[in-house]
TrEMBL record, chain A:
The species this protein was found in: Diplogelasinospora grovesii
Family: Belongs to the mitochondrion-specific ribosomal protein mS33 family.
Protein name: Small ribosomal subunit protein mS33
Subcellular location as annotated: Mitochondrion
Main location class: mitochondrion
Annotated keywords: Mitochondrion, Ribonucleoprotein, Ribosomal protein
Basic residues bias (residue ranges): 86-96
Keyword Mitochondrion in record: yes
GO terms for cellular component: mitochondrion; ribonucleoprotein complex; ribosome
Pfam families noted in UniProt: MRP-S33
Region (Disordered): 85-107
TrEMBL record, chain B:
Family classification: Belongs to the universal ribosomal protein uS14 family.
InterPro entries: Ribosomal_uS14 (IPR001209), Ribosomal_uS14_CS (IPR018271)
A Pfam entry, by short name: Ribosomal_S14
Organism field: Diplogelasinospora grovesii
Top-rank taxon, per record: Eukaryota
Record keywords, A-Z: Ribonucleoprotein, Ribosomal protein
Gene Ontology biological process terms in this record: translation
This protein's GO CC annotations: mitochondrial small ribosomal subunit
GO molecular function: structural constituent of ribosome
Record Gene3D superfamilies: 1.10.287.1480
Protein name as it appears in the record: Ribosomal protein S14
């Protein structure tokens, strides 16, 4: 036994009212599926781990307690530069006055 | 435009090269503009709206900066910045994953043997 289509539509309408869904018997594209999607920006933006605490931060924090935090990597770097300079292989000093007078000016 | 440029303060705690920084910038740009993009996409998909409105929305969506496009985002290895062969679950390229797994640095991962 078949139910007339009008009756089925009535049923669908009542159903939609009850469960507060959209009554769309013709299947018109309303783009609601876009609105139903969740935002994935926060998950995507959290992919790479963020920098939390650096040695600089520790040094700043402990400076108020008169404690010194050692930064080994930075000390190694300074030592390396000092060694270079002792051999006369360091980076040249920046020119201040001479560059402005004689050198080519940047526009 | 400034939001699509690199962050003033360096905020990454993983391996970094320019490609990783760029990808991170794209992710942040996408996060910032995602509601706008979704709204435009809704207007475009909605066939009950006038055709002119939908065409304008299409134009606006295509004229957004390409850093705001989710397809520009690519998962990269957090230990080496490589873009290929990256395992999504561990965010690592296959070789880095192998090295870390063999060293026992990844909890619950064990080399299969039977």
């Amino acid at each position: 036994m078949s139910v007339p289509r009008a009756r089925m539509l009535q049923l669908m309408k009542a159903q939609c009212q009850l469960f507060s869904t959209t009554f769309n018997p013709d299947g018109v594209r309303t783009g609601n599926k876009i609105l139903r999607q969740r935002l994935r920006g926060p998950a995507l933006a959290a992919y790479y781990p963020r920098k939390l605490v650096t040695i600089r931060d520790l040094q700043k924090e402990f400076a108020s307690l008169d404690l010194f935090v050692e930064d080994e990597a930075d000390e190694d770097r300074l030592e390396h530069i000092a060694a270079l300079k002792a051999r006369g292989k360091g980076a040249p000093k920046k020119k201040k006055e001479a560059a402005q007078k004689g050198g080519p000016r940047k526009k | 435009m400034s939001m699509f440029q690199r962050a003033k303060k360096f905020d990454l705690g993983c391996f970094t090269n320019i490609k990783v920084i760029r990808d991170h910038t794209k992710r942040k740009a996408f996060e910032a503009t995602e509601p706008e993009r979704q709204a435009l996409r809704y207007i475009i998909r909605n066939t009950t709206l006038p055709a002119r409105t939908r065409a304008i929305a299409q134009l606006q969506l295509t004229q957004m900066h390409n850093y705001t496009r989710p397809t520009q985002i690519r998962n990269r290895c957090i230990l080496g910045g490589k873009s290929r062969g990256v395992l999504r679950d561990f965010k690592m390229s296959r070789f880095n994953f192998r090295m870390q797994a063999l060293a026992g640095n990844i909890p619950g991962v064990k080399k299969a043997s039977w």
